[in-house]
Amino acid sequence: MSARRGRLTVLVPLLALGLAGAPGLSRGETVEATETFEGTHSLVGSYLAGRIAKSQNDAAEAAEFYRNALIHDPENELLLEQAFQIEATRGDWPRAFKLAEDLVGVQKQHRMAQLALALRDFKAGAWRKSEEHFKSAGSGPIGELTSAMAVAWVELAQNDISGALARLDLPKQAEWAQFFLRYHRALIADIAGRRAEARASYEKVYGQDARTLRIALAFARHEAYTGDRKRALSIINEHIEKSQGDGHPLLRSLRAAVQSGKKIDPIVTTPSDGMAEVFYGLGEALIGEGAVGVGVLYMQMALFVEPDHQFALAALASAYEGNKQYADAINTYNRIPKTSPLATAVEIRKAFNLNSLDRVDEARATLSALLDETSKTQATETKTEAAAPAEPAKPELASLADDEVLRRGERGDSVQKLQEALQALGYDIGTADGKFGDGTRRAVMAFQKKNDLKADGVVGPETFRAILSGGAAASGTKTAKADPALDEPLPLTVSDRLEILDALGNILRARKMYAEAIPYYDQALALVPKPERRHWVYFYARGTSYERLKNWSAAEADLEKALSLYPDQPLILNYLGYSWIDQGRKLKEGMAHIEKAVALKPDDGYIVDSLGWAHYMQGNFADAVRYLERAVELKPDDPVLNDHLGDALWRVGREREARYQWDQALSLKPEPEDEAKIKKKLESGLTGVDAPAAISGSGKQAAKSGENEQK
Description:
Blueprint: E1 11-13, E2 30-32, H1 43-55, H2 59-72, H3 77-90, H4 93-106, H5 111-123, H6 127-136, H7 140-157, H8 161-166, H9 175-192, H10 195-208, H11 213-225, H12 229-241, H13 249-260, H14 271-288, H15 292-305, H16 310-322, H17 326-333, H18 343-356, H19 360-384, H20 413-424, H21 438-450, H22 461-468, H23 494-510, H24 514-526, H25 536-548, H26 552-565, H27 570-582, H28 587-600, H29 605-617, H30 621-634, H31 639-651, H32 655-667, H33 672-684
């Protein structure tokens, strides 16, 4: 990096400022400055404050501090880079573009800055400048792949179909990259009317990964768009059958649209859609691999091109959740239309985020409103269902082979489908009898003229493609987004109601409001007359709530029912096994349950703690220390686990180490009743406290994995 430092001459190491432990600051990082540190209004102060705010995922604060730092040194490369990344991550594109221009002035090959400028020019229709910026961003495996796919869509925007497809020929790219290249080849071929090529590419991509929702949706929509609704339904149903419950709402919505005969467009219909898909797809992959910062940047770039890209919005909100940016997640979820099939899932996620912000009443109200709205909707539908006329099914449109042409004198099924399509668009062709006569020719010519196509009355792939899309030109640049699979919310299914009730129960259970949580689990289980394996979670949640309320008979019944549904679930094995041992009952069976749980989930600190504490309760102190040390190693920031280890260390004569663990437990903010006990142990140890023999019901609560988890 050849940063322009200008008047910055004096090195100010961060270590000298006492900030070596600040999150997000590397040990060797330095900032050069001529001025002394005078708080956050100075160059150094603004820079450091920006770095700390960034490390704490406070993008708004970080952006403000970097702007102030740039006032002091507007040409500093390090500041330009950090400021650009923050502004782009926030989606503040006017500021990001200005910073990107400044940044490429000192670092021409800066990939992210070049990508930002490329997208700006693409959206403005400056194709050549956009392509130049994309090519400048093509360094490294991700850069080369991004550049190739993006330039392909630039080519398509200029109606160069062959050039667009040629850009995707990168035989030296790895197999994971070929997946993306084949997918975008399918998308481009679909828009271009090259149905056979599109289907072949979809087949390869789907064969490579049939589990990805986006691929299943794209392939199914392609099949429906080209007339093979049976195959489309097969793809949708196959994907739904592999999932638990009723399937993803977008799949259910698409299935309903296909079955009703609605017109189905490809998942991407314009070059702008395709460009957004490039950055959405790669952004999702980057986030999945742990590169969250770059992934969020890619998501924001996708949304700059297509602000209504629902998948990108959902993925960005999820990334914010992972960073504990709950308010940002809620704001992003709010951009997804209330009419979307995703609406129910979005409201559930918003409720969890509200709960994380300690806005519990709002979270409960959000979820309760979903159930209330469902009841109102069902009542309305019951009153109006009989009177509502059924929507007439739209004709199922076929497709032409790439070399097929329909003209006057032709006969057959393709002509009849063409006539039905023209009738659906309001053209008078007489009778749809499968005979291409003068009436059909006049209708075709009228359609061609209206849509800026050559008005010769001959139907080739271009005209037929435009008719299929409901009256849009082939290039895609004039196609209005029509997505019948996303234009209305779905009615709640049983699985949806179960998820809402479970969310309500989990929010209350996590806040130790067990008595209020139980009725929601009761309602959920009332919806399940024949419980299956996937319903274990409701019995488990209600059982743990009963246990915390000291209603053991009800708790044991629920936990045993959960275990009968899912015998290898480590959370159930751990909770039930430990509870038995803590009560001095079913000791052999309880230990077997916990040991099995540890074998199934050996890296869960809470479950390992249960095994260690079970040994302690039975007087096996040496074994207890062994497992409890491992538990603390796995979960060092839990006060209960540190307290348990302290007790065990004391029993084996390692009293100094025991006091250290109790002191550590105290520093981790334990529950008030535990805090008092730990302070007493720090004063006098376990002197005078009888050690557990074979077993005694101590009443001390072990850390039970999952008891406070939210889904």
